[in-house]
Amino acid sequence: MKYASALLLLLAACSEGGDFPRLLPTDQILADPALPAHAQPVAAAPEQVLTQADARAAALRARADALRGPVVEDEIKARAAN
Q1: What torsion do the CA atoms of 56, 60, 66, 69 make, to the nearest 10 degrees?
Q2: Does residue 81 lie in a domain region?
Q3: Which residues span the domain enclosing 56?
Q4: Residue 65 within any structural domain of the chain
Q5: In this structure, which long-range contacts are made by residues 4-10, counting pairs with CB atoms below 8 Å and at least 24 apart in sequence?
Q6: Cα 29–33–35 angle (5° rounding)?
Q7: What is the C-alpha to C-alpha distance for residues 8 and 3, in angstroms, rounded to an integer?
Q8: Quick one: pLDDT band at residue 15, thresholds 50, 70, 90?
Q9: What is the rounded CA–CA span in Å between residue 12 and residue 23?
Q10: What is the model's pLDDT at position 16?
């Protein structure tokens, strides 16, 4: 009986009704991934992507630096104190 309940549990876990990923053949799982069409220019010119990423990072750092400082300006604090 112990083996029968384990077998039923195993069969229930392998049913098609669940939200489980589809099983793939081993050769398909171990194959090198194919790049999607939109990634082909990146594979051809990775230095361009690095340049754009560096420019984006510099822009974000500058934006973060601009946000540093007091949240409430001194003149507003002075007005609220009166």
Answers
A1: -170
A2: no
A3: 39-69
A4: yes
A5: none
A6: 150
A7: 9
A8: low
A9: 16
A10: 62
Residue 60 lies in a domain: yes
19 phi and psi angles, rounded to 5 deg:
-95, 55
pLDDT in tens, 31-54: 998 888 888 888 888 898 899 999
Kindly state whether residue 62 falls inside one of the protein's structural domains: yes
Instruction: Note the pLDDT of residue 57.
Output: 98
Contact between residue 46 and residue 38 where contact means Cβ atoms under 8 Å apart: no
What pTM did the predictor assign? 0.43
Q: In this structure, what token pair is assigned to residue 59? A: 């822009």
Q: How many domains are contained in the chain?
A: 1
DSSP H helices in the chain: 2-13, 26-30, 40-44, 46-67, 74-81
- pLDDT grade for 6, boundaries at 50, 70 and 90: confident
